[in-house]
Give the backbone structure.
Amino acid sequence: MTGESPTSGAGLDALPSPLDSVADSRAAARWIISSAGAVGALLLGGGPLIAAGKVTDWAHAVWAGGGLLVTLLGVAWAIWRTSEVLVPPMTTPATLTGPELRGLRERLEAEPWYHFGGYAGDVDGLLRHRRIAAEITHRLSTAPPQERDALRAGLATARRNIARTDPYLRWLLATAHAWQVREALRRARRQTFLAAALVVVGAVVFIAATTG
């Protein structure tokens, strides 16, 4: 932090942006897609077609075709699931309170003094000032004249609190965006592992059918 207080919003700007990890996650996803595509190209090459030409009966032909189909489905599954990492997720303040970011919230709320700058104890508390400002703005349009001065004063206070918490919210949104991409990559890796198992099963069936 180079001398900044842990609760200083300016100190967050001195930290590496969480968004820096997004490019690495997407590079890993592209590598997985390229690898899966190379496997698919190999399966559609001349080798399998030559092997299939050695099949002389319908039973083995069905098994060979089924094995090749399963293998190609595994490749397509891996590419499809991994390509989701390359789609930018929509990240808004509401995203911070969603169930998909439960793990991130638990980490943040374990050290609220650092992540929320002393202005809140959790994500909901950090967003509270925006809800208050929205409610006051809505009430101002229909409030009687004698209440409007108090509402304007409350709105000014809420806006000052929003200005103080903005650096923390921007940092949390960047972290949430990177977290979503990371979770998408983790899911893609699991799906790719299952797809690889499918490819192996299909390849074994195909080889057994064309060499039997």
